[in-house]
């Protein structure tokens, strides 16, 4: 039977991790997978996370099963963090998931249970695994234009025109902040216009919020999501704790379904718990408990937020340094978009040949579409990258 399987193309981002590891060259630079690294190239455990784990070790007395949809302390703390304290918990269904990817998958499963004919509107480009998951599920995808390759900014007129074509029963996937892979984000005014379009056509927004705290700040990065939540009666939000808590391997995420009334919320909550049961039964507990412990303790929370701000500030400084180096080397301001982008990523706009040249001649690894992970840099490697970008002819 298993011999009938067709070979699967490896995920491009994960394959790049393997290629980087196998490269014996000294001084190689990894700007591939979206993992935060400090100046030494290490992905640290955040201070508050370590402390939360210590406390858990001291106080936990059992490893028996916990909630099928997650634990209330995690759900509540995440609802507050994403939507703001005092969000409408009575009409919000919550599901702890296996990371942000699990939340995306369960959101799409939920939407398809509610409407077997749904189409999903997806930004062009988007995180490749969005597309891969939808293809695997057999969901029809409609691309909406998003990124202007010339300016490396959002092509908002094109986006508006394309998402206007969505209708009730469709899902429009939006990146809440720190757009992956481009780094180009909507302004609050643009979010307002998106809300007006979705109000008019009745499509359901699905917001992927994987980088809250990595762009303009914890509150600022949730502003677009909150605006949509205030205006649209039904909203799906898939959030990840991988990046902002640095707990990648603990697989911690949440799906929120904002509903128009409590009866719909109860239906959605039941369907979501059912989906967990059908796919993996209980969601991972450990990471969710870390997050709940940090968010529900004033001291740990303050320390976590301070460290998150250090991480965010470090990435911003690297962006500015890279834009400055490139301004000097190119004698132009055509790379200033790097300082304007937010989050871990920027799409450079290099051709596949230029990306290959940077890898072959300079041992610099970035995703083939020229997405680079800013956090893979430090102040010594920024000039190396800047030189490579210019010598590759970008
Ligand atoms: C990325 O885009 O690099 C991250 O979201 C990690 C992943 O799973 O692809």
Automatic annotation (TrEMBL):
**One Pfam match:** Aminotran_1_2
In the record, biological process GO terms are: L-phenylalanine biosynthetic process from chorismate via phenylpyruvate
Keywords recorded for this protein, A-Z: Aminotransferase, Pyridoxal phosphate, Transferase
Quaternary context: Homodimer.
By what name is this protein known?
Aromatic amino acid aminotransferase apoenzyme
* InterPro entries (alphabetical): Aminotransferase_I/II_large, Asp_trans, PyrdxlP-dep_Trfase, PyrdxlP-dep_Trfase_major, PyrdxlP-dep_Trfase_small
Question: PANTHER family under this entry?
Answer: ASPARTATE AMINOTRANSFERASE (PTHR11879), ASPARTATE AMINOTRANSFERASE, MITOCHONDRIAL (PTHR11879:SF22)
> Which cofactors is this protein said to need?
pyridoxal 5'-phosphate
Instruction: Extract the GO molecular function terms from the UniProt entry.
Output: identical protein binding; L-aspartate:2-oxoglutarate aminotransferase activity; L-tyrosine-2-oxoglutarate transaminase activity; pyridoxal phosphate binding
Source lineage:
Bacteria, Pseudomonadati, Pseudomonadota, Alphaproteobacteria, Rhodobacterales
The record's similarity note reads: Belongs to the class-I pyridoxal-phosphate-dependent aminotransferase family.
Query: Which GO cellular component terms, listed alphabetically, does the Swiss-Prot or TrEMBL entry include?
Result: cytosol
Q: List the source organism.
A: Paracoccus laeviglucosivorans
Tagged with keyword Transferase: yes
Which residues belong to any copy of the Aminotransferase class I/classII large domain? Answer: 28-389
